[in-house]
Give the backbone structure.
Amino acid sequence: MVLVAAMGRNRAIGVRNRLPWRLASDLRHYRKITLGKPMIMGRKTLLSIGRLLPGRETIVVTRDRGFVFPGAHVAGDLASALALAGARAAAMGADEIIVAGGGEIYAQTICGADALKITLVDLAPDGDAFFPAIDPAVWRESRREAHPASPGDEAPFAFIDYIRHTA
Ligand SMILES: NC(=O)c1ccc[n+]([C@@H]2O[C@H](COP(=O)([O-])OP(=O)(O)OC[C@H]3O[C@@H](n4cnc5c(N)ncnc54)[C@H](OP(=O)(O)O)[C@@H]3O)[C@@H](O)[C@H]2O)c1
């Protein structure tokens, strides 16, 4: 289970149910690392994206038993979302389950995650959704790749991978 998120220096990931920046490079990176994999996301994140992302399977978590989004799997709690994502990963031949946010879902899944793939955006925007603290006693940075802002990017950013400390 891999949590994939873009966050500001203040850990902000969203404001008023949208992303707080424009970062075309990160959208390309996001597509590359999530393609062919099942993705778990909260109902607010799915509605914020507003559509299914092609080449991936979406499992949306909601407590609303009547919620329907054509083409998405709907789970009533995180345990059933994870079980369904595991089954879909096996069927798709995927080696990872992606947890795609938002803040509520990251907070409830970071304890059980195997890895984090974070885009650290060099901004500290207003936010109302945040990524949880990344405890250095639990998480070890395994890779960092810094990028200047390209056309379509509002700020410089870095791709940072974390894995759990072993032992
Ligand atoms: N920067 C990034 O990488 C990134 C990634 C994803 C999202 N975002 C941003 O994050 C914001 C959305 O995050 P958010 O924290 O407000 O919402 P969210 O986590 O996307 O969704 C919250 C909703 O998920 C459902 N939910 C949460 N826990 C559940 C559980 N244990 N069992 C069943 N359902 C559960 C509930 O849906 P119901 O109310 O329907 O019951 C809840 O209202 C947006 O601004 C979005 O743009 C940013």
Summary: Residues 5-6, 13-14, 17-19, 42-45, 48, 61-64, 77-78, 100-105, 108, 129 surround NAP (CB under 6 Å).
